Amino acid sequence: MPERFRDQRPCPLCSQTTYIALSSPRLAHLWRCAYCDLVSVRRLPEPEELHAVYGEAYFRNSRSEESGYEDYEQDRYCIVKTAKRRLDTLERYTQERGRLLDVGCALGFFADTARHRGWQAEGIDISHHAVEYATEHLGLPARQGILRDAGYAPGSFDAVTMFDVIEHVTDPVAELQLVRTLLKPGGVVMLSTPDVGSLAARLTGPRWMGYKLAEEHLYYFDRKTITLALDHAGFEVLEARPIGKDVSLDFFAKRLRLYAPPIAAGLGWGIEKARLGRASIYANPRDILSVVARVGRC
Ligand SMILES: [Zn+2]
């Protein structure tokens, strides 16, 4: 029988206080709510610990399998390709290309792509470095900080996007409720988050790419729990499906090396020889969920 715990902190989805240990010792910093199955870190970090995670190194570091990104700026061509796919999805549910806020905008590549398609796009990010880049290099309207303190007018956005953000915030339901207040009636939120219930997550166990440092990913959702979170926040889910990312062949070979070393070694060698480092492929291991939801009638 897995170990059970009682904690003072209620589960943000169901308010219960009983948690179950995960089976792997390498995931000892996580537990699962005994009632709704939401996986979370046992101890939520303090705000200053969170700020320490998202410095410049978050967007360029050599240990990106554990935290952050290898070189976010160099991957711009891939991020833009992915952004176009995501906008194609979002635009199926929006009437017009109005005002869009990208929460966790990073260096601003998604919002910039949206702007080029006619959206009035803005960004917000906790990272000083990221917002500085977005405003100076892209001329993007971007604010530094957290959504709660940003001062956006209620009911002022047609769409809010938050890619790989909701697993980083300390209270995901409160964050989504806030997003709902910023949207116009009928407004749409589109988000993505690693799917802890995916086959890839279950097959690779503690080596799954979705597992990050305890200060970085605070929650791990699956289709059921992200739907519950959106429902509690007053959204109606319109679609939820696995989405991929355009990645450089170089990155693809490195990631593959984590899972299948002999294949990756061969592929890495081939990529180097052929100098295809800037080519990209669309990779979808089906372990990231994309969800589009509309402000519900309350
Ligand atoms: Zn729960």
3D architecture notes:
The chain has 298 residues and is α/β, with parallel strands linked by helices. The chain has a domain at 45-192 and 217-244 and 289-295: Vaccinia Virus protein VP39 (Rossmann fold), CATH 3.40.50. It is built from ten helices and 14 strands. The chain has helices at residues 47-53, 56-59, 76-90, 109-116, 128-138, 172-182, 199-204, 223-232, 249-259, 261-274; strands spanning 4-6, 18-21, 30-33, 39-41, 99-103, 120-125, 142-144, 157-163, 183-194, 219-220, 235-242, 245-248, 280-283, 288-295. Helix 6 links the parallel strand 8 and strand 9. Helix 3 (76-90) packs across helix 4 (109-116) and helix 9 (249-259) packs antiparallel against helix 10 (261-274). The protein binds zinc ion (ZN).
What topology emerges from the helices and strands here?
Layout: E1 4-6, E2 18-21, E3 30-33, E4 39-41, H1 47-53, H2 56-59, H3 76-90, E5 99-103, H4 109-116, E6 120-125, H5 128-138, E7 142-144, E8 157-163, H6 172-182, E9 183-194, H7 199-204, E10 219-220, H8 223-232, E11 235-242, E12 245-248, H9 249-259, H10 261-274, E13 280-283, E14 288-295
Parallel strand pairs: 5-6, 5-8, 6-7, 8-9
Antiparallel strand pairs: 1-2, 2-3, 3-4, 4-10, 9-14, 11-14, 12-13
Zinc ion is lined by residues 11, 13-14, 16, 33, 35-36, 38.
So, CATH architecture of the domain at 45-192 and 217-244 and 289-295?
3-Layer(aba) Sandwich
CATH homologous superfamily assignment of the domain at 45-192 and 217-244 and 289-295:
Vaccinia Virus protein VP39
How large is the count of helical segments?
10
Radius of gyration, rounded? Answer: 19 Å
Which ligands appear in the coordinates?
Answer: zinc ion
Largest sheet: 7 strands, mixed
Percent range for β-strand residues: 15-25%
Secondary structure: helix percent:
25-40%
* Cross-sheet strand order for the largest sheet: 7-6-5-8-9-14-11
Q: CATH class of the domain at 45-192 and 217-244 and 289-295, anyone?
A: Alpha Beta
CATH topology of the domain at 45-192 and 217-244 and 289-295: Rossmann fold
Uncertain spans, ≥5 residues at pLDDT below 50? Answer: none
Let me know the number of strands: 14
What distance separates the N and C termini? Answer: 41 Å
Average pLDDT works out at 88
The geometry reads as globular
